[in-house]
Amino acid sequence: MWWWALNAIAAERTFDRGDFLLDRETVAVDVLRAVVPEAPATPVPSEQDRVCRVSLRWRERVVAEAIGCHSSVAAVSEAAVRQWNLLLSPPPPGEVDLLVVWFRFPAPPGEDGRQDALQMVEFGVSGVPGTTIAALPPDVRAAEPPRVQARESIRWPADIPVDQTATCDLRLAVSEEGAPFNLDVTGCDPKWVPALRDAALGWRFSAPRFGTALVRVAVPLRIHFRDGTAAFEQITAADADLRYVAADPTRPAAQVDEPAFVAPPLPDHPPILTLHHSHFAPVDLYEMPMPVGTGPGSCAMVAQLRSDRKLRVWTEDPCAETLRDASLDAMGRWLMAPSDKRDPDEVFARFRGLFLYDAEGEARFVVDARDVGGDRRVPAGVGTYVPPEVVRQVPPKPVDAEGVCTLTVALDARGRPREVLPKACPAPLAAVAVRAVSRWLWTPPTIDGERVAATTEVAVRFR
Length: 463
Description:
By secondary structure, this protein is mainly beta. Helix content is about 10%, strand content about 40%.
């Protein structure tokens, strides 16, 4: 695994592992922290300029590059994305495109003096070709860049000798309907612009989307005129369908076909267990061979299954290497399928659990009792965990500050706090929040009815 982290700036979001995940054959990209830029003091007037995209690429390090952004938001967008935390697994062996971050900035106040409904900078993400967005938090938008559907060839200007060369940079705005407009050309002599304008304004794209909203975006391109032809150059990771290098600009880009994934057949008997987690679709499990480790310990696991049954498993927290390898190997051989009891448009199913190893290395799989579906029975080797619930809250003392403190609380088997630590909390509020939560009480956490120590998290809001 490779960890990329820098100091955070304002307006950050943190995520649990696996909650914000992009997957491809060579590397999995786990977003653990996202930073959103502040809106500029002067709102961006043009609608197409209010959407800024930033490409994240691995080039021996993570490189962030704004894509066709307006000058008023490009720098702050790049600066925000450079503060993101990514966990790359495994470390990429060579250059690879990772993802594209979208920021949508607020509109200026309306003529009646009211601010547009979009007050804060929103953000979303789109994958580059070959990347699957495996998991996305509910409030993060899934975006779709404009894709070329029809493109006119760029004709060599009749009054320019074929032995001349030029390189022109284009910034092409694309409307909600996929129609280009506002073509800006820089970097070359104006004599080349008419040929570019005649061709580019006849192109057609798919409609760019930000979540469910159709939006306007800007697309950067670079054109080389040489040897009597005009060719596109690859310049960003965002618009692979727009770029290629060829003597003939009408030649389609090469296509790479991935081998189809074939899932193993399911048995005739019904599932032995149905599990789900959060807002993901449930999973039916048919076979669950347990791992054998070396000595006592535990490994928290996450399994995610696509609608075609392609499985990905990972450890949620660090655990001993031998136990981790045994856990991953065993769960990777489980036979499972997304449950029929899911919405037709749900692509991903997921569940969490914990392998508990005894002194001899024998394991059992423990799941949150609330995640058990079906008839709520569990097979041999599977235990159920009942998490603690707060039964007494002590409010913090009033302070002259606002904010939210997220605290990690270690509980004993009676449901009493043994240790309270700030996880994400403004400095002026941390001590006050810890003192208050140290006096809270929880119901005892249990596994198969037996009381156990456990860790939980709470949020304390100051207003």
